[in-house]
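Hey,

Quick one before I head out. I ran the complex with CU-O-CU linkage overnight. Inputs first:
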Amino acid sequence: MPSVSRLSRRDFLIATSAALAPNFAFGNDSSGSVASTTSALSSTAPDVEIELIAKRDNVRILEGASTPVWRYIGNLIKGPQNTLSQFGDSYLGPTMRFVKGQRIRIHLRNELPQQTIAHWHGLHVPMAADGHPMSVIDPGQSYIYDFEMLNRASMNFYHPHPHEETATQVYRGLAGLIIVEDDEERALGLPSGEYEIPLVIQDRAFNAANQLVYGGGMHRSMFGFYGDQILVNGKPNYRLEVASRAYRLRLLNASNARIYKLGWDDGEPITVIGVDGGLLNKPETRPYLMLAPSERVDLWVDFSSRPVGSKLIMRNMSFSGLIPEMAMGMMQDDGLSVSENFPLFTVVVTRKETESLKLPQLLSNVKRFRIEDAVNPTNPVPIAIAMQHMSFTLNGREYSHDDILPRERIPVDTVQLIDIFHDHGGMGMHGGMMGGGMGMMSMAHPIHLHGQSFQIISRTFEGNTDSYATVRDGFIDVGLKDTVIVSPGERIRIVKPFNNFKGRFMYHCHNLEHEDMGMMREFLVE
Ligand code: C2O
Ligand code: CU
Ligand code: CU
């Protein structure tokens, strides 16, 4: 753990900076300055109405002193009682459970000492309800989101999206889950209730006073924040007690930058039933899984052959090639494990129970896109990853509001072929030092597109095959995705529909430090 004395000038103690921030009135008075920025409230009454408050708080995370955090608190105004559920006593926001077809209204109230806006990562909603960085609200203000749940059953992720402050706001604790249900999924009778367990994985760093430390200085700003403490559902050394039966474990990587290679310690293969955008058509089995920030995996885990008292550990397994050697060196000097083998959480079988659940061999029936389904099969929309002036860019530009390139204009209600690749840049050499390809600074970027889910058509690789062999079996490229890991040397083709809504929709790296640095652009759907 980096001790306080080793913090560089660019590090800061989260708690201290919050305490120094200007003071705002924090009462429960909602009559204050309320700015409703949503363009048009729907005339039909919502089925579900929620008040979501972003505020400062103190939460006990480690032994001893509590930790100052920023968090979401929810109140159900209208709708089914199970819509909101608290994540134990952690800082994570309430889990929102919605049903496809519901009309939803969320009142976000900003009680933080800073501008914010919440984004419903994975949901297909109009621009005015997407948490666009331009929709940020000041302290004391509210924002009303009004949308219909168009998504199929899936597990999604809500978090702040103010430009240049997303990483620090998520780091301080602002994050939560959105679970969508639909009839198709219900009919399968998958494990539910206490047998359906969300697991949110994050890494953090703390000082001796249990305050969050956003350390890492130089390597953080280049490669993203890495912490030395793994939290699952907001807790260290997470232990899950289960019965000897089938479970559904739903994992989200809500870390700022860390990519995990998930594997059971006894070598048991992992059975995947779903990814970002919901259930796969049929289960997939893998020796391990790669999970980048904002990616989700839905696992079927059968503990029925395990005796009471047995333990199973989900580990981060070692891998290479996703982070530059140089960055790994800098992080190791700070005492950070980057891609080594270490435990993430432990499952303990504590009781005997029998059920007769069978893993369905047919989970869903999503039509598989082909390149010919796109309007531009021979002329893909590019997302070129490069490094310029010591920062990563997309399509050669840093983010700025409303700076739309001709190739970023997309006709509404079209299906587009998109090509995501490392641009070797103008260094002359293939993958020169600054090139995004195989150069010294080349690294994996989890590229996320707002709006409707996409499908991965192909993943091609050219580069160091030894490193690649440590990760390549961990990608699930079937199913509906909203974030895809683009490793050094990879070129990924996706097909994505842009239906229903005109407006500007973000695409960006979900390494949050990269996103804040400007590795973000937007498509103008028109
Ligand atoms: Cu998870 Cu643009 O966001
Ligand atoms: Cu998103
Ligand atoms: Cu990136």
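Residues 1-40, 426-438 have pLDDT under 50 and may be disordered.

Talk tomorrow,
K.
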